[in-house]
Amino acid sequence: MSVIYDYFHRAATRFPDKLALVDAEDTYTYAQLLAEIETLACKIIDKSGQQRPRVALITDNQKDNICTCLAIAKLNGCCIPMNGQLLPAQLIRACQAVDANILAGSAGAIQKTAQAKHAIATIDLSAVDLSAVSQNNAEISQGNNRVSAELDARIASWQGAQDFLITLSSGSTGAPKPIMISQQVKLERAKQSWELYHLTERDVSLCASPFFHSLGQRLTFVPLLLGCTMVHLGKFTPSQWLNLVEQYQVSFVISVSSHLYALKKQLIANAKQLTSLNTIVTSSAPIDAKFKAQVFNAIGCDFHEIYGATEIAVATNLSPAQASAKYQTVGSACNNIDLVILDDEYKEVTKDTVGEIAVRTPLAFSGYYQQQVLTQQSFHKEYFLTGDLGEKDADGFLSYVGRKKDIIISGGINIYPKDIESVLLQHSAIHEIAVIGVEDTLLGEVIVAICIAEPNTIESKKIESELRKLANKQLAAFQRPLKYFFPDELPLTATGKVSKLMLREQYSKLNDGWTDSLRMMLYGGSADD
Fold first, then answer.
1. Helix axis angle, 214-224 to 183-196, nearest 10°
2. What is the mean pLDDT of residues 3-19?
3. Residue ranges covered by each domain of the chain
4. Which end of the chain has fewer CB within 10 Å, C or N?
5. Tens of pLDDT along 370-413?
6. What are the DSSP calls for 60-126, one per residue?
7. The AMP-binding enzyme C-terminal domain covers which part of the protein (predicted)?
8. How many Å apart are CA 108 and CA 112, to the nearest integer?
9. What's the fold here for domain 408-523?
10. Measuring CA to CA, how many Å separate 428 from each of 303, 423, 432, 452, 485?
């Protein structure tokens, strides 16, 4: 049994003519989506032969993401959403790392595999014509029975697989970190959101995150498995966000913090447009206490802040009832979740002491695909080691301090500095390099490369130009540094290691509006508005 597909099928049976998806100018009912899911299930199984389908999914079209993923769920296959910005070589490495045997996506994504001369079965999703698929419920049911009759035994043998979804936490030049999540856990995560935010089929949800991102997946399954309407915003702008909320009477949103900061002025100035909103949730990075207080006071709807990770889903929740007293925290542990703070020897620390956040949850991931050692290293007993630093107060509320792991989160995307450093070190004039994330009000963090050049080499401006060309050639757009600096040396810790903490403190002070031009181009405002 496919629990994800079954829940969607149940919603489509109850509400066949209900608006399920709004994506730009296109709208789709539940019956229409279900019809295409059945068609795609046939295409996928034909391509996979006797093998369990392991589908790399690369498209910006939300209808294609939804239908392909649910078709894979129906077949008890494995869906691996990928970032379309990956370069051909990166895409192939990612496919190989997760043993993908089918690539489904846009014509451009398929062309990338051809450029890299990688042999893999492909499905061009742009060639699937939804208008040619019957919308009659009886025919939908007949198609469903046809697929089941032919393949029931084989599909049943794949039931219970722990890797329904694999989310790649890095669009990396090295080995990606493939996070496996089973269908049952994905369903339970959706149920957690239904309970936390009191959602029903009458809600309308807005998603402004890409499907390859775990938040984009959450904002797909949460509404569609419940029978809600999902409104998708492919390219975020504050004005478009506000227009969609008003036009479709959106009641529920989860926004990454960078989107909320971009919306800051508009949220307060356009409160009348937001009367349909029942719940706003912020995710991906904590927002500062001052801004949080302004939003709490201005919007007039429930405002939640959460802490979590792809591996553990939502671990804490700060509800409106707790906000006035605990607004400097990210909330307390959700039901059935145990959160502790550990020192470097994995001993639990006392209250108000900073340590690593560790979480025990029934919503945990299944592990990192084919990386058993890494999976084991990520746990202490039953607790997932998040790599984040935090502290709990006497009431059990968590304050997020920072990241222990060397990772950058820019625009809600996890980026690994090591991947960038290994590319830039290919330049013959670079002796040493440290890539860091510098705090930024637009993107959360921006990527900065601090480069130590060999003595008596060419001038730094020419080196920077060559490094940018190297990055453009070998790194995806979201991995490329915004700024390059060329000091004489890098600061070291007492043990002789490069201190990225000191570098972040030093270079964060220099960010006097590095992304202001991008903000103006996208949103038409400054950070101070």
1. 70
2. 97
3. 29-181, 408-523
4. N
5. 999 999 999 999 999 999 889 999 999 999 877 777 788 898 88
6. S-HHHHHHHHHHHHHTT-EEEE--TT--HHHHHHHHHHTT--EEEE-HHHHHHHHHTT---EEEEGG
7. 420-497
8. 6
9. GMP Synthetase; Chain A, domain 3 (3.30.300)
10. 51, 11, 11, 11, 17
Pairwise CA distance, residues 41 & 505, whole Å = 51
Q: Residue 521: pLDDT band by 50, 70, 90 thresholds? A: confident
Beta carbons of 15 and 201 less than 8 angstroms apart:
yes
Cα–Cα distance, 86 to 57 (Å, whole number): 12
260, amino acid identity = L
Distances (CA, A) of 450 to 5, 121, 142, 431, 489: 48, 42, 61, 11, 9
Closest CA to 156 of 148, 165, 164: 148
Query: Where do the DSSP E strands lie in 297-429?
Result: 302-309, 313-318, 332-333, 338-342, 355-360, 367-368, 379-380, 383-392, 398-403, 408-410, 413-415
User: pLDDT tens for residues 308-333?
Assistant: 999 999 999 998 888 778 878 899 99
Closest of 161, 158, 190 to residue 367, by C-alpha: 161
Amino acid at 131: S
Q: Under the phi-then-psi rule, with left for phi > 0, alpha for psi from -120 to 50, and beta for the rest, what region is 378?
A: alpha
Helix (H, G, I), strand (E, B), or coil: what is residue 405? coil
d(CA 358, CA 351): 14
* Cα distance between residue 215 and residue 167, in whole Å: 11
Q: Is 71 exposed, middle or buried (0-12, 13-18, 19+ CB in 10 A)?
A: buried
Ranges assigned E (strand) in 393-514: 398-403, 408-410, 413-415, 430-440, 444-453, 483-485
Task: Determine the 3-state secondary structure of 164 from DSSP.
Answer: coil
**CA angle at 421 for the pair 416 and 422, rounded to the nearest 5°:** 105
Distance between CA 165 and CA 186 in Å, rounded?
8
Mean pLDDT, rounded, for 263-270? 78
Contact 280, 266 (CB under 8 A): no
Q: For the whole prediction, is pTM greater than 0.90?
A: no
- Name the CATH topology of 29-181: Rossmann fold (3.40.50)
DSSP string across 208-233: -S-TTSHHHHHHHHHHHTTT-EEEE-
* Cα atoms found within 13 Å of the Cα of residue 333, Cβ hemisphere only: 20
Beta pairing partners, 19: 29
Instruction: Give me the percent of the chain exceeding a pLDDT of 70.
Output: 89
What are the structure tokens assigned to 64, written together? 């294609």
Identify the pLDDT of residue 301.
79
**Please, which residues bridge with residue 79 across strands?**
55, 165
Q: Helices 214-224 and 3-14, interaxial angle, to 10°?
A: 50
Are 407 and 415 contacting, i.e. CB atoms less than 8 angstroms apart? yes
Q: How far apart are the first and last CA of the chain?
A: 52
